[in-house]
Amino acid sequence: MSARPLKILYLMVEDTAGTLSIFKKQHEALGNECRYVTLFRSPEGFPRDIELNLPLMPSSGWFKRAKSRYYDESEMYQDAPGYPPTWHPKHWSEKTFFHLRDALWKPLIQRALEKYNLLDFDIYHLEGGHGFLRMNAWPFDELVKRGKHILINYHGADMRTRGVFPWIDELAEIYTTSELDLMERHPNMDYVFLPFEVKKFEPRFELHQPLRICHATRDRYWKGSDTIIEACEKLVKSHHIEFVLIENQPHAKALEMKAGCDIYIDQVSNLGGWGYGMNSVEALSMGLACCTNLVPQYETFIPDHPFNNVNRETLYKELVRLVEQPDLIVKLREQGRSWVERTHGVNAVMKSIYTLYFRENWISELPDAFND
């Protein structure tokens, strides 16, 4: 590797999946320094590192009310146009707000940059393509001129409904995503599986009596949750299963509820992205059988996947098939645990990231841990 350990910084508006602490731990295990900065506190209760807790949080009640005043709700769910989709303020009021907020935030961020020496890192991972400010690329435009490297990892809504910030996007050398549909929305995207500490969970493959089926959601629209709830409530009556709805729960509580189930249903709509997300990764790690809607592109991309492919029309029928074949549930659970360890296990994911570093000559060789 390089003559000295790498210094790697992650920046994210708020940690919504719990991956930042995983990345930090794994980079440090390879002998490098890693910190992560979040602009706001996550309601999920994930571990924190440098949390700025800036004012005018976008998830606050007054912010949401103001947003709904200027936007038709249907606009919030529409895909942004362009290749890649690009964000620009839609209203003069939005432009004014973000300029004023940037002016308020900048001195607060400046103090944090100095306090934590945040301008002295080698590689900057910008989660969601967001910088410290909304309307310009400060300080990353200057950091690039000093030879620093930027990797942008795009998440679902960041690109689908918001779009990239062109003044940030143009600075990056590597673009990654863990969501397959985003590969078709940006010209330079690499796919990286979500990292998860699979081995922290001891799977159980014995079935509960009665069988327990669960679904987790924070926004019923994106996952087709109403369809899922309807099918499961019908199954409660027809086959006497138990249905566990995990809705707007803290992460620790959601994990506890999920661990006590046999089957997890992710989504049936593909509205919030194709396929599956961290909820399924967690469920597979626990040894649950997972149902989700996989489009043909996803079936081709992960042909050895363990998912039971469902949609709005087939969900109830497929659940009946599983409930009436308990041996099949156990088989899917065992296959799922093996698959998630191969694909989402931290060593496999970190190897893919360092391979990208190596490809771009950010490092001279791969760490010994990956030379197997």
Structural summary, described in words:
This protein has 372 residues and is an alpha/beta fold. It has two domains: 214 residues, Rossmann fold, CATH 3.40.50; 147 residues, Glycogen Phosphorylase B (Rossmann fold). Helix content is 40%, strand content 14%. The protein is built from 14 helices and twelve strands. The protein has a seven-stranded parallel beta sheet. It has a five-stranded parallel beta sheet with strand order 9-8-10-11-12, with helices on both faces. Helix 4 links the parallel strand 4 and strand 5. It is globular. The two termini are 16 Å apart. The mean pLDDT is 91.
Could you list some keywords that capture this structure?
372 residues, single chain, seven-stranded parallel β-sheet, alpha/beta, five-stranded parallel β-sheet, Rossmann fold, 2 domains
List the helices and strands and how they pair.
Layout: E1 7-12, H1 19-29, E2 33-38, E3 50-51, H2 61-70, H3 92-115, E4 123-127, H4 140-145, E5 149-154, H5 156-162, H6 166-169, E6 174-177, E7 189-191, E8 212-217, H7 220-223, H8 225-239, E9 242-247, H9 251-259, E10 263-265, H10 278-286, E11 289-292, H11 296-301, E12 308-309, H12 315-323, H13 326-344, H14 346-359
